[in-house]
Design brief:
121 residues; two-stranded antiparallel sheet; two-stranded antiparallel ribbon; 5 helices; globular
Length: 121
């Protein structure tokens, strides 16, 4: 069994990509496009979103499995996920999550695992 499979068993039940409904795929695709646009063209808006963000990443890896598993996602011996290009991550990854919509998309992938981030109301 690979480390990837062990981590999924130990951490949470993730929804396999082939089980995504069209509605889920649409929401995740729209979220990726929204984050790309905001990250590249609306940096001030991104900062406003981040000012409302609290806490820190729980390292569950769910956000790195939206639509597909990121090829840079790795898992350590304790079953925590991280990125093997963390210092050179794409903009979409650096700004994630922007708001509650991103958390809701992430919850489609790992409904049984809470995200470490939350947002001020």
């Amino acid at each position: 069994m690979s480390n990837w499979e062990k981590a999924d068993i130990n951490n949470a039940k993730h929804v396999p990509p082939q089980k995504y409904t069209w509605k889920m795929r649409y929401a995740m695709t729209a979220g990726k496009i929204r984050r790309f646009f905001l990250g590249h063209f609306c940096k001030n808006k991104v900062q406003e979103f981040h000012d409302l963000r609290e806490s820190e990443c729980a390292r569950c890896g769910a956000c790195c499995k939206l639509l597909f598993r990121c090829p840079h996602l790795i898992v350590d011996d304790q079953g925590y996920y991280s990125c093997n290009i963390h210092t050179k991550r794409p903009v979409n990854c650096r700004i994630y999550p922007l708001d509650q919509r991103d958390i809701d998309e992430r919850d489609m992938v790992a409904p049984g695992t809470k995200c470490g981030y939350r947002f001020k109301k």
